[in-house]
């Protein structure tokens, strides 16, 4: 209801014989959850990579004295999960048996069908000193005003390229309110705030070919083949080779950020984009008189230095092609073109 409408009804209340009571919503403490990997909400990985994660949380909304208990599920749509890691130091040790309370499978959660059920635990807010366990202390201020890692772990990236998520759901939590005279703590239910998943992008790091080569003056059709993958971190290299090139000719490696289909030199330039560039000339090699056969070739190694110097970053799509001299070609352009290759820059 608009504020002006409410005020109008209040003014008309006595005339209509109505009594309107203004409703007041009770402030509620909330808990925001975020799943991160090395501080990032989105990670780019190769198939089969191990991905480390952390579930961070921070209290918001109505004031409290810190987190007293929490539980949530973790669901990963890229495969099965194992138990999360329990804390080995810090205040969250008070949430782990025997100092605190957690489900029978432990603080790291029960695994069911590859999902983690009931990750978490609680502090001993009832101060039951006569029971053999739990025997921990109540610590205030946890997740209040600064995020805290509630759980950590790792999983394996799927073998199929695509986008996957690791998300927390079914949050249940309490926060400390006050301490009773007997040493027992009063707690209040916490509502779920924002819940942000970790997005995992599994990249297809091998190169694929596209577009058509120009038939050379001596009848051959140059073709690109590839091996390896383009790694920005230097863990792997991508090698591109163009075979069946006219022998002993100068060629240049054309690189861009988009695929194209532009008519040029009686053929198709398959590389475009705002940062399209020509890389230093190379000789095709081969035997016999220049331009007499098709045993020439070009090779380009795509390593981290090449990628950085060319201005490419993680997850960028790269398109490339060779353009070379073919002075004897019947169309008079004096040029030949290979087909093109495309690849993604991987970690």
Can you give keywords for this protein?
mainly beta; 347 residues; 21 strands
Could you characterize the architecture of this molecule?
The chain has 347 residues and is mainly beta. The chain has 2 helices and 21 strands. Strands 1, 2, 3, 4, 5, 6, 7, 8, 9, 10 and 11 form an 11-stranded mixed beta sheet that branches. It has a 5-stranded antiparallel beta sheet with strand order 12-21-20-15-18, with no helix packed on it. It is rod-shaped, with a radius of gyration of 32 Å.
Beta-strand percentage?
over 45%
Quick one: biggest sheet?
11 strands, mixed
Q: What would you call the shape?
A: rod-shaped
How many beta-strand elements?
21
Which stretches are low in confidence, meaning pLDDT under 50 for 5 or more residues running?
1-25
The class by helix and strand makeup works out as mainly beta
Helix content: under 10%
Q: What value does the Rg take, in angstroms?
A: 32 Å
Order of helices and strands: HEEEEEEEEEEEEEEEEEEEHEE
**Termini gap:** 52 Å
What is the tally of helical segments? 2
Mean pLDDT: 89
Briefly say what this structure is.
By secondary structure, the chain is mostly beta strands. Helix content is 6%, strand content 47%.
């Amino acid at each position: 209801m608009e504020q002006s409408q409410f005020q109008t009804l209040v003014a008309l209340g006595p005339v209509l014989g109505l009594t309107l009571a203004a409703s007041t919503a009770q402030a509620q403490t909330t808990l925001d959850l975020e799943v991160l990997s090395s501080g990032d909400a989105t990670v780019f990985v190769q198939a089969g990579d191990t991905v480390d994660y952390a579930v961070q949380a921070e209290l918001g909304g109505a004031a409290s004295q810190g987190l007293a208990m929490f539980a949530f599920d973790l669901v990963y749509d890229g495969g099965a999960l194992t138990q999360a890691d329990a804390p080995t130091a810090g205040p969250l040790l008070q949430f782990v048996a025997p100092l605190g309370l957690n489900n029978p499978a432990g603080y790291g959660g029960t695994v069911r069908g590859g999902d983690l059920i009931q990750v978490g635990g609680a502090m001993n807010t009832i101060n039951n000193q006569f029971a053999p366990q739990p025997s921990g202390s109540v610590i205030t201020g946890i997740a209040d005003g600064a995020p805290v890692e509630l759980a950590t772990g790792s999983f394996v990236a799927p073998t199929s390229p695509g986008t996957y998520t690791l998300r927390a759901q079914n949050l249940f939590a309490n926060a400390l309110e006050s301490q009773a005279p007997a040493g027992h703590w009063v707690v209040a239910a916490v509502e779920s705030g924002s819940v942000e998943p970790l997005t995992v992008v599994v990249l297809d790091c091998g190169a694929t070919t596209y577009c058509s080569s120009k038939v050379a003056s001596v009848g051959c059709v140059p073709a690109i083949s590839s091996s390896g993958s383009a790694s920005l971190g230097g863990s792997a290299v991508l090698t591109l080779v163009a075979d069946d090139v006219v022998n002993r000719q100068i060629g240049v490696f054309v690189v861009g950020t988009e695929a194209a289909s532009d008519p040029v030199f009686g053929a198709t330039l398959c590389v475009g984009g705002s940062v399209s560039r020509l890389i230093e000339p190379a000789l095709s090699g081969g035997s016999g008189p220049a331009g007499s056969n098709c045993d020439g070739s070009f090779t380009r190694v795509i390593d981290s230095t090449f990628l950085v110097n060319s201005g490419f970053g993680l997850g960028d799509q790269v398109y490339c092609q060779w353009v070379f001299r073919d002075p004897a070609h019947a169309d008079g352009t004096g040029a030949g073109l290979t087909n093109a290759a495309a690849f993604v820059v991987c970690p």
